Amino acid sequence: MPAETLQTFLAAAASLLGPRGFTTDAEAMEPWLTDWRGRFTGSALALASPASTAEVAALVRLCAAHGVPIVPQGGNSGMSGGATPDNSGRAIVLSLRRMNAIRSLDREGRTATCEAGVILQVLHEAAEREGLRFPLSLGGKGSATLGGLVSTNAGGTQVLRHGSMRALVLGLEAVLADGSIFDQLVPLKKDNRGFDLKQLLIGSEGTLGVVTAVTVKLVPAVAARAVLWAGLDSLAGARQLLLHAQAMAGTALEGFEVMPRHSLDAVCGYLPDARRPLEGDHAWHALIELVADADGAAWLPELAERLLVSAFEHDLIADATIAHSEAQAERFWQLRESIAPAERAIGPAVQHDISVPVARMPEFVDHTVPLIEVEWPGTTAIGFGHLGDGNIHFHVLAPADSDPATWQQGDGKAISRRVHDLVTQWGGSISAEHGIGQLKRDELARLGDPVALAMLRAVKHALDPAGLLNPGKLL
């Protein structure tokens, strides 16, 4: 862009958004130019922080007129570098953090309409005050925003019962590449006017439009919960326990997480006050959560007891316990949520957010773990995660004393390629819940179905012909 044109654009953007909403100061921009994992760092022309949908639309029209790329950003807590600009310095980072109002919360209708910058934990607290809850939670709830969760179709530990963001979004508002506003915030139980366009934008990672607001589904608050910890001999046994729990508990079953011995050992070595929930040594562990609203709270403890007794009678578990307090229940969940940082403390690793058909998850892990460890001697492969929806967090730890940078660029990349090949052969996905971003863009191009990829590119070209929305991500 010629210098004169560039200065015209910057002056117009600064006038539109004011000093709170627009800056080219390098120090002010610096925290938002690197993803939270530290894998990707870029540069930007400016940081824009509009305060309303109208300002977003006006800014996008201005960028379209001057050919300026836009990188939308929420809490900057993504796992795939999808909100980080490239190194060209041509793009602006469009932060939605100032758009943080909960526009409405309908207690009777059990819905909330939130601007894109609303932090997940803030929505949780607002819903709780009305005796409701938003049934999606993840480790980054204190920084993740609703717009980012929509754009990546976020999952979490409650997908087993409530589904991912696709299932929780009732309405959507977004600014398209030409600055027009797509407004379908009002939820309708029935609407057969063609394509469900909001679903097209969910999971599109900011490449088709900038999400500015969302209407989400709320559910009754949890009045009681029972958190169980079970020791098992195998992942296949955990799958049988899951089926047994689903049959006995039905919709009361909200979470079912699994982890191998190595993961629990790592966490107990990492957390100073960590205590193992069970005596003895077990190859696998399952963390199970049952919940009930006010109508079912009284019978939940009995259900939890009957579930464990029945599981023992069917030889599905070697040992088990039920958290005797909310504090202990939280400690159980802390063990699960601390796996990733505990592994990072051990040394370099490559992490894979993958999924396979639910029924094949045990078989896939049992097949792939020894295969990787044989092909790359000295590595330790670990599969853990959301057994109920087939989402495996498959991590491969480097051999002891490996140089992190050298190993990541060499064996680490080769291992990831091999894991992605295997999961594709098993009919799975190379991205279960973290998105594609720039981390997996080339792998999607290499392994994706050609017809599906052609459809994705056609949609992208139709809605963003100049390619200005989040360039270099997803496709």
Q: Which helices and strands appear, and what pairs or packs with what?
A:
Blueprint: H1 3-21, E1 22-23, H2 26-29, E2 46-48, H3 53-66, E3 70-73, E4 92-95, E5 102-106, E6 111-115, H4 120-129, E7 132-133, H5 146-151, H6 159-162, H7 165-168, E8 169-175, E9 181-184, H8 197-201, E10 210-217, E11 219-220, E12 224-232, H9 235-249, E13 253-260, H10 261-270, E14 284-292, H11 300-313, E15 319-322, H12 326-337, H13 339-346, E16 349-355, H14 361-375, E17 380-386, E18 391-397, H15 404-425, H16 441-447, H17 450-463
Parallel strand pairs: 2-4, 3-4
Antiparallel strand pairs: 1-2, 5-6, 6-10, 7-11, 8-9, 8-10, 12-14, 12-15, 13-14, 13-17, 16-18, 17-18
Helix pairs in contact: 1-3, 9-11, 9-14, 10-13
Q: Structural class, please?
A: alpha+beta
Report the sheet-strand fraction.
15-25%
Order of the strands making up the biggest sheet: 15-12-14-13-17-18-16
* Whole-number mean pLDDT: 95
The domain tally reads: 4
The rounded Rg comes to 23 Å
Kindly state the number of beta strands.
18
Low-confidence stretches: none
The CATH architecture classification of the largest domain is 2-Layer Sandwich
Shape estimate: globular
The CATH class of the largest domain: Alpha Beta
**Helicity range of the residues?**
25-40%
Give the count of helical stretches.
17
Biggest sheet, open or closed, and with what strands and sense? 7 strands, antiparallel
Q: What separation lies between the terminal Cα atoms?
A: 24 Å
CATH topological fold name of the largest domain: Uridine Diphospho-n-acetylenolpyruvylglucosamine Reductase, domain 3
